[in-house]
Amino acid sequence: MALDLETRTALLDTVRRFVTGRLRPLEAQIADDDAIPDDVIDEMKALGLFGLSVAEEFGGLALTMEEECLVIVEMGHTSPAFRSAFGTNVGIGSQGLVMFGTDEQKAHWLPRIASGELITSFALTEPDAGSDSANVQTRARRDGDDYLLDGGKIYITNADKAGLFTVMARTNPEIKGAGGVSAFLVPADLPGLSVGPPERKMGQHGAHVCAVNFDGVRVPAANRLGAEGQGFKLAMQVLDRGRLHISALCVGVAQRLIADACAFAAERRQFGKPIAEHQLIQALIADSSAEMMAARALVMETARLRDSGARVTLEAAAAKYMASEMVGRVADRAVQIFGGAGYIADYGIERFYRDVRLFRIYEGTSQIQQIVIARETMKAHGV
After folding, report:
1. What pLDDT shows up at residue 383?
2. How far from 252 is each of 191, 245, 372, 374, CA to CA, in Å?
3. For an engineered disulfide with 247, which of 67, 68, 275, 319 has Cβ 3.0 to 4.6 Å away?
4. DSSP conformation letters of 135-157
5. Is this structure's pTM higher than 0.70?
6. Residue pair 354/206 in contact by the 8 Å Cβ criterion
7. Fold annotation for 233-380
8. How many helices (H) and strands (E) does the chain have?
9. Where are the domains of the chain?
10. DSSP string computed for 180-194
């Protein structure tokens, strides 16, 4: 059930003040330290950010997709690493459990996920399985009342902090492709599970991705999500929601970049007047603003469509594609408006330029979104 207008407004105002007053002053420190202070994480927990999408009965805020997107747009006004700290709990790390979990599984895990006591992670990507999600090679072999997991995952967000992984593994090697893949809830402390060090990345410092290895990890069959062979279906439904979440984040970051570019253009003077009065600078701002508004409209319309119960695979892919490509162009224009200052670390614009590059890759690359968009469009036209 959607929040009433007064409650929703109060929530967004609270998040906006937290972003402006608490998070933005820490942006340079987070980038330098490649870490978010524990007290900031505790404040996020107190605000309920780790449980945005979890039902109230389990301690979450139970936001609709539209409401979640509105919150994430506000979070986009600061470094993306802050959103990443709770993003897996809200999205890919918890939604498989929300959508496919049994009553017992939900009661056991969701309260700790919603409170932020337990960090979750989604372990799908492998060296040969990312865009080709159905090519999962990590193996889950049935052994009595357990499964034995063997294999490895790469680029797993929040893996070094996770207490619970949703792992995609092949339960039937005789079935090639999606049909042989199942999903499992795997506690991080099980013997045989190991997490590699955080990878060094182009951007989004403070948000960590790591390799995760499984060496004969014994997982109770009761921890399987859904039936055997439903893992790919689960992953795709989780990614539909995750793509909308990331699309909203792209919109928020674009809004931040446009605001910063406008403020700089009003102060920076060339040829006797602020550069904001030069039409070629105005064109950069106009293109950025128009593209941001178009992406925002698509994201919010798709969120409302999903809340109505409609299938949004096409629309979510289109939103992710348009919003992630849009914010890359906006970041590029912001660097151009800042000129030399845009290339200097002290101003922070070059940091955002690096940060947003990831949005065109994770939750499905732009090329994968194009394939999904084309496939779903042709399907809708009977092709």
Report:
1. 87
2. 41, 11, 24, 27
3. 319
4. G---EEEEETTEEEEEEEEEEEE
5. yes
6. no
7. Butyryl-CoA Dehydrogenase, subunit A; domain 3 (1.20.140)
8. 12, 10
9. 5-115, 120-229, 233-380
10. GEEEEEEETTSTTEE
Q: How far apart are CA 72 and CA 53, in angstroms?
A: 12
**Residue 225 CB coordination number (10 Å):** 21
For residue 76 the two structure tokens come to 């986009």
Give me Rg for the CA atoms of the chain.
Answer: 21
The pLDDT score that the predictor gives to residue 290 is 98
Q: Which residues contact 3 (CB under 8 A, 6 or more apart)?
A: 11, 63, 64, 67
DSSP string covering 40-71: HHHHHHHHTGGGTTS-GGGT-----HHHHHHH
Q: Where are the beta strands (DSSP E) in the chain?
A: 120-123, 139-143, 146-157, 164-170, 181-187, 193-195, 209-220, 224-225, 269-270, 273-274
Is the CB of residue 349 less than 8 Å from the CB of residue 342? yes
CATH code for the structural domain at 120-229: 2.40.110.10
* Residue reference for tokens 């348009």: 322
What's the CA angle centered on 192, arms 188 and 196, to 5 degrees? 65
E-strand spans in 112-248? 120-123, 139-143, 146-157, 164-170, 181-187, 193-195, 209-220, 224-225
- The Cα–Cα gap between 378 and 383 comes to 5
Residue 68 Cα to chain centre, angstroms:
12
Using CA atoms, how far residue 368 sits from 153, 274, 300, in Å, is 20, 42, 22
pLDDT on residue 178 = 83
Which of left, alpha, beta for 364 (phi over 0: left; psi -120 to 50: alpha)?
A: left
The CATH superfamily holding the domain 5-115 is Acyl-CoA dehydrogenase/oxidase, N-terminal domain (1.10.540.10)
Helix (H, G, I), strand (E, B) or coil at 165: strand
Splitting the chain (383 residues) into consecutive groups of 10 residues, what average pLDDT does each group show?
Answer: 91 98 97 96 97 95 96 98 95 90 96 96 90 87 97 96 96 88 96 97 96 98 94 86 96 98 97 97 98 98 97 97 98 98 95 97 94 96 92
Rounded Cα gap, residues 14 and 139, in angstroms: 45
Catalytic residues, by residue number, are: 363
SS3 category, 352: helix
